[in-house]
Write a structure and sequence with these properties.
Its EC number is 2.1.1.297. It is an enzyme of class 2 (transferase). Residues 78-174 form the Methyltransferase small domain. This is peptide chain release factor N(5)-glutamine methyltransferase. GO terms for molecular function: peptide chain release factor N(5)-glutamine methyltransferase activity. This protein is an alpha/beta fold. The chain folds into two domains: 6-47, no CATH class; 76-256, Vaccinia Virus protein VP39 (Rossmann fold, 3-Layer(aba) Sandwich), CATH 3.40.50. It contains ten helices and nine strands. The protein has helices at 6-15, 21-31, 35-46, 51-55, 79-88, 104-113, 125-134, 179-184, 198-210, 226-235, and strands spanning 57-60, 63-66, 94-98, 117-122, 141-144, 159-164, 211-221, 239-245, 250-256. The protein has a seven-stranded mixed sheet, with helices on both faces. Strand 1 and strand 2 (63-66) form a beta hairpin. Helix 1 packs across helix 2 (21-31). It is globular. The N and C termini lie far apart (61 Å).
């Protein structure tokens, strides 16, 4: 394959089943610094590695977010969660991004709101390292550990917006996910337990203690999980509201500390 041969790149990507081969070829050609690197990048993509892991970034809510190998790739539908959060808060808000992965949600919300106090947390060291780069512009702090255990105690009762992009795929359905996710993203970022809501229940159970009066917890879930998710929010003493975006096939549950 000759350097800058767009048609050759497209042909290889199409043969591997890449639906958006032309767009992906544009991104790979723009990212590669020479023919050897281009060939290696195309080979990695053809082997099934997510495009975002190949080029090292993902576009999310207008930002270029660094995404390292093995780190969960932020989905476009989750931009709806960020937009909803932005409509409920303002500059100066205390924001926590739990199960932060790359830190995309926190970074995007900070960019939308302006000056915020941003904290993010994840149990996976690779995600923490990646998130630290992505929230640096917002002067955010990233903590490593299991959910609230990772957060500094001084945040208790002060959080205005609690974003929790928890895994919500039922364990038995992880095997049905596209290979890109199943084989190249950390399972802890995908597997939500028997009914997909194990991690969510842990988040909701302790959310009230961390939220400020009037503070909100926001998380994404599937349409079929809404009744159980709303029940978990209510059981935690929060007032639940469900919002959807049909274009993005996104469902977000908001739990407010009244």
């Amino acid at each position: 394959m000759s350097w800058s041969d767009h048609s050759a790149v497209v042909t290889r990507l199409r043969a591997a089943g890449c639906v958006f081969a032309e767009d992906e070829a544009d991104l790979l050609l723009a990212a590669a610094e020479g023919p050897d690197q281009l060939d290696a990048m195309v080979a990695r993509r053809v082997s099934g590695l997510p495009l975002e892991h190949v080029v090292g970034w993902a576009e999310f809510a207008g930002l270029r977010v660094a995404v390292d190998s093995g780190v969960f790739v932020p989905r476009r539908r989750t931009e709806f969660l960020v937009r909803e959060a932005a409509s409920l808060a303002g500059p100066g808000a205390v924001v926590v991004d739990l199960c932060c992965g790359s830190g995309a949600l926190g970074a995007a919300l900070a960019a939308a709101l302006g000056e915020v106090e941003l904290h993010a947390a994840d149990i996976a060291p690779a995600a923490v390292a990646c998130a630290r780069r992505n929230v640096a512009a917002a002067r955010g702090h990233v903590h490593e550990g299991d959910l609230y255990e990772a957060l500094p105690g001084r945040l208790r009762g002060r959080v205005d917006v609690l974003l929790a992009n928890v895994p919500y795929v039922p364990t038995d359905e992880v095997a049905l996910l596209p290979a890109e996710a199943r084989e190249h993203e950390a399972r802890v970022a995908l597997d939500g337990g028997v009914d997909g809501l194990d991690v969510l229940r842990r988040v909701t159970a302790d959310a009230r203690a961390w939220l400020a009066p009037g503070g909100r917890l926001l998380f994404e879930t599937s349409e079929r999980q809404v009744p159980s998710a709303v029940e978990a929010v209510g059981a935690a003493g929060l007032v639940a509201k469900v919002v959807t975006d049909d274009e993005l096939y996104a469902t977000v549950v908001v739990g407010e500390r009244a």
